[in-house]
Amino acid sequence: MTYWVESMQSPEELREALRKSNAPFTDSRSADEKALYSQQQADNRRMRADRSQFERYRARLGDEAPKTFSQFRKLKKQGGEKWEDLQKLYRSKFPKTVDNSGESGIIKTIGEAHDYLNSVFGSVEKNVSRLDEQLVIDNTEQLRKLNKKFGVLTNKNTGYISGSRIKATAETYSSLAEHKYNLILSSKYYKSSDHLLETEKYWQEIKFSMPVSNKYLNVATITHEYGHMLQNELIRNRITPALFEQYNLLISTGNRNGAMHLLYQEEKDQTQNIYNEIIAIAKELNPDIKISEHISKYGKSNYYEAFAEIFMNSQCGEPNELGKAMNIFLERSGYV
After folding, report:
1. Are 135 and 218 in contact, with CB atoms under 8 Å apart?
2. pTM attached to this predicted model
3. Mind listing the pLDDT tens digit for each residue in 112-133?
């Protein structure tokens, strides 16, 4: 190790150091080195995704799940009937908060809706009761279905659900650092089923939103918002423990801005990586696909909204080519 002390450098050495530090970055790696690094990163992402999935299976199934991570990965890699049986067992063991013995129409009353919301959110604000009852019932049932499938919302990571006056139809607030999700439904749109449906239909007509089947129009937005939460989980699964340690160190030394910038940059990078992986799968399915023709105007605004829009399309009726790619991506990422 060579130590560099500024006060011990000559003016010429300081100018040279400054020149080098301001020089544009040049990646001097060979094509083979870049390919090797990309492959290693992909392997690491799959490893972390599998590890997270293994931990979820162990938490839900206990001794009915493979006892070691290596056994779990071997079973998953082999696929076949044993892997399918394990997936079915995992789905059948979803923690019961309300009756979820079927797959549709389970939450039928406003009371059941509030019971479920209270089971997955730390706080259900009073203004939710001022929203259209049938919309609350239908959207809570959609949340239940999505959460049964993907398991994002738990008592450990949820904040509140609110029915407030906001410009958007709904908003999700999430934090990688705190691992909490807050969901706000617009009192303007969710107070009237007709108003919400008219808005959703208009967005479909002008291609502002990804296409969904008509029967999903009243739950399209909440599916989009759940997509944001799921994306946040995917990002968390990809972040190394070392980065969180670095974040905590910055917080402990009073450098909150540096800590937040660290997580923000990682979130930004991983969001783009996830989008690129979904697009790569879409091109596997159809090498001639024109991405711009399959994604909504809102999805084109940034990678974060692109994920939520494509996820909404994948879960609300007949998915287009990007929606199909999303489902394959989620399966490869360990979500069933």
Report:
1. yes
2. 0.72
3. 999 999 988 989 999 999 999 9
